[in-house]
Amino acid sequence: MAQGGPDAGLGVYLPLVLIFVLALAFATLSVLLGPLLGPSRFNRAKFSAYECGIEPSPQPLVGAGRMPVAYYVTAMLFILFDIEMVFLFPYAVSADALGLWGVAAATLFIATFFIADAYVWRRGGLDWN
Amino acid sequence: MTPLLAQVQEPMTRAELLADDPLWLILIKAVVLMLVGPVLTVVMIVGERKIVGRMQNRPGPNRVGPFGSLQAIADAIKLPFKEQVIPDTADRKVYFLAPIIAVVPALIGLAAIPFGPEVTIFGERTVLQLVELPVGVLLVLAGASIGVYGIVLAGWASGSPYPLLGGMRSAAQVISYEIAMGLAIIGVVLYAQSMATGEIVEAQASGWYFYLLLPSFVIYLISMVGETNRAPFDLPEAESELVGGFHTEYSSMKFAMFFLAEYTNMVIVSAFATTLFLGGWMFPFVGLDSPLNQGWFPVLWFFGKMFVLLFGFIWLRGTLPRFRYDQFMKLGWKVLVPAGLVWLVLIALVRAIRNDGNVSTGQILVIGGIAIVVIVLLTLLLPEKKIEDDDSVPTTGSDYPVPPLDLKVPETTPRRKALKAKAKSGKRTEALASTKEGSDGDL
Fold it and tell me: Is the pTM here over 0.95, yes or no?
């Protein structure tokens, strides 16, 4: 097997693959266990979407209906900030080596995102009504 | 291998120790780690119901087993024998896949958590950890957020309005609070100068990060409750608004998978908080060489710290009412994220000044303290806004409020205002209509 340390090969990920396979097997077997062990009694009303007893609202043929657009705004903001985080992690690991210059660069980077954030804030993109 | 020989061996790093593990040891560790989640889920369910019950002055479950302690096991056995109901409107493939996607990352989430120092299992030197990756922190973070795919797909695939709303809410919630959580973690990475979880724990030998990085710790604690969809942030399954949220249409074992994922995620974020901020497996106030920090004891300390955090989850549920959705998103985006960013810049700056400019932490603290005092004094100079207290209630000598004697009807209530405005606008449209008629008549 590969040696440990920063130069280690992909061998260090082997236990992760192993536990992933185990977890996948556990989850799949559990989900398949339901229809095998449980009863199955037909009832028309049981198979309609649950809406507190009223007649279910019409749905598209596949998947669910429409959703508020505010969720898309949140998703896009998340991508913006997640990218910021992706760049800040490597900076944080080597912050001591980079010193004050690194702080200046990181602050500039964060400030750039603050402008975008302030714009969205001002335009009401963070408000939910 | 004799114990004597084992002592003579040169010290190895955690990664080296793990790389030498034979396959059977990895297998044992993987199985045990995978079962930690489900076992703790069973414990948590009974514990939560008992504790919340006591907090609400009722006994909680007390029928199955001694003091109701087997209730969760009885429920777990019951669930596979229930009928699974799939609505006609469901997208069947995704509907089956969603619980699996939700539960798999939850089951492997503990892989990078260090449970203890070097031990010997069946004559094999190893550490109580499955993998020590150079990016261990990212693994836990990724696992916590991949689980939301399961939730949002479950909501979408059910083909029903309530699950869809619950799934969307959950997705927005998890991604919002993941940013705050990530910013809190970056603070820890900055101090430990490593993203490997085992090294982060060892870096805390000189001081745990929960008091060194207090704002980071607070941000992490709040966002870990938001990330796991627990009360007071349990909006995706707000039963008074959305029936059951994303799992309304799920039954039988598929429902059990979502339940398992939720509780296992609580265990993971608590274990992660213990690793990052509470010194992991270390016993407080003693060095790494102390016998308390050797061998198998540290596992106890680790689980002790973790259970404190898990009790915090239950306590929150028993204490606080649910947030409104707009308040919740406001807290995440307008408070936690900016606060996290500012705090991050601050600690990066202090650390760089200390390392580069030969300035001691004490000097930085003194200068920072003086700056804060000056700012506070300056704010005292600002003229105070006078608050006019019109609604003061007259009281008698014994401080009991006296009802108004004239009993005048209040001039304006919001409803009255709205009615007035409506009446006014109605008149205006009438007037407009009449002028229009008039002009028509002229033509």
Answer: no
Task: Tell me whether residue A129 is exposed, middle or buried, using C-beta atoms within 10 angstroms of its C-beta: 0 to 12, 13 to 18, 19 or more.
Answer: exposed
Instruction: For residue B239, give its domain range.
Output: 86-119+132-363
Q: What is the pLDDT of residues B226-268, one digit of tens each?
A: 888 887 887 767 666 677 778 887 888 888 888 888 899 999 9
* Secondary structure of residue B121 in the 3-state scheme: strand
CA distance B59 to chain A (A): 31
- Has residue B391 been placed in a domain? no
pLDDT in tens, B310-353: 999 899 888 888 888 888 888 888 888 888 888 888 888 888 88
**B64 touches A: beta carbon within 8 Å:** no
Residue B54 counted as domain residue: no
Interface contact B352-A99, CB threshold 8 A = yes
Residues of A in contact with B243 (CB under 8 A): 50, 52
CATH 1.20.58.1610 fits A66-129, yes or no: yes
Question: Which amino acid is located at B12 in the chain?
Answer: M
Q: How many domains does chain B have?
A: 1
User: Pick from A8, A19, A64: which is nearest to B19 by CB?
Assistant: A8
Residue B124 lies inside a defined structural domain of this protein: no
